[in-house]
Amino acid sequence: MGWLWWISALFFFFLFPLTSLSTSYTSDLFRQWCQQHGKSYSTEEENLYRFNVFEDNYAYIIRHNSNSNSSYTLSLNSFADLTHHEFKLARLRGLSASAASDDLIRLNRGSSLIESSSYLPKSLDWRDKGAVTNVKDQGSCGACWSFSATGAMEGINQIVTGSLISLSEQELVDCDKSFNSGCEGGLMDYAYEFVIKNKGIDTEDDYPYQAKQTSCNKNKRKRNIVTIDGYNDIPENNEDQLLKAVANQPVSVGICGSERAFQLYSKGIFTGPCSTALDHAVLIVGYDSKDGVDYWIIKNSWGNSWGINGYMYMARNTGDSHGLCGINMLASYPIKTSPNPPPSPTPKPVKCNLFSWCSEGETCCCASNFLGICLKWTCCELNAAVCCKDHRHCCPSDYPICDSERNLCLKQTNNGTLAIQPKKNSDSGNSGGRSTLHKQYF
């Protein structure tokens, strides 16, 4: 029986160092991952918790990647410190919940598709044709619907005009209130409806993304750089029609992205498993085949660190009419036949004096004077405003009475006095001489 004791001792001796070595390796890997993705945690408890989550995700990745029959691999991307529940709350709440229900109102259901030639190329990638902007990142705001919609509009605009212009998701998040709900979700059809009724949409550069919902900037909403003339809903569960549409332009689709493998996807052709409960919106930018497996080229809005530099290959022609992850269920695309409006004229400054000025649509107010000569000007962000005697406030013309003591703007009506609360802006302005400008809006 002595030999059994020796075997048990050797087993314990070797097992313990291997376990320690494995933990040490994962700890080093976690530190390297934190440096790579710029992650830090406020407390040691949070750091330990995130390490345990990371370790669990790493074990899941190893198990999946060891399956030689899988057509795709997983990796420690920027979401590797999130539990799957946390990931879904942060990234998969952007497609309206009604998208998967029978009572969903698709505003262009059953409309005719654009004409497509009988010949379809075996493969196509709209990135190669210059019709796809760089991968963007929606952050923790559930605005995937806006990224899918702008991506489709960017694509058709480039195809029609030859100009690739990155469009403003933030305008849709802030201003599209008829049906969509900003960071709480929306649908691409409704985004197209907004752009049509608004007679265009602003650029990303002019109205940049904030990853949160803010007040609609009405001035920027009026800057209609790119227009569309309509949109089409592709018949549900019709992959042939979807393929024809993608052969003509990038197409918006809804998918189910809530499987754990989706969170950590790295490369290869994603084959699921996944349900058809739609909870995420993406953009199809092409299609191809590899080793006899057909796939879509999907542009996501989770940044470059996810997937294939922000993209995924998703299996098509799977034999399920809904498509893998429900990709055939909620597809649509914008229509553009007319040119974009001419550029707006350059705003003309409003002169305060020879050396100082305000922007177009603002009012010059004197902030400091000596013997009737204004030494310092402020800009009120209102047109034809009333400048208050305290030299620090201004009121809109329809509330023309300044009450500086209570910091209110008033107006008299038959029923009494109405008041509005002032708003403040950060100091800014333009000056070409000794006079200085400070913007304040009250």
From TrEMBL:
Key word Phosphoprotein present in the record? no
Q: Where is the Granulins domain?
A: 352-409
InterPro entries the record matches: Granulin (IPR000118), Granulin_sf (IPR037277), Papain-like_cys_pep_sf (IPR038765), Pept_asp_AS (IPR025661), Pept_cys_AS (IPR000169), Pept_his_AS (IPR025660), Peptidase_C1A (IPR013128), Peptidase_C1A_C (IPR000668)
* Domain Cathepsin propeptide inhibitor: residue ranges: 30-87
Keywords (A to Z) from UniProt: Disulfide bond, Glycoprotein, Hydrolase, Protease, Signal, Thiol protease
GO terms of biological process kind: proteolysis involved in protein catabolic process
Listed PROSITE patterns: THIOL_PROTEASE_ASN, THIOL_PROTEASE_CYS, THIOL_PROTEASE_HIS
Q: Where is the signal peptide?
A: 1-21
- A molecular function (GO) term: cysteine-type endopeptidase activity
Q: Write one Pfam family the protein is assigned to.
A: Granulin
Q: Where is the Peptidase C1A papain C-terminal domain?
A: 120-335
Please provide one cellular component term from the Gene Ontology annotations of this protein.
extracellular space
Q: Where is this region: Disordered?
A: 420-442
Family (UniProt): Belongs to the peptidase C1 family.
Q: What is this protein called?
A: Cysteine protease
| Source species of the chain | Lactuca sativa
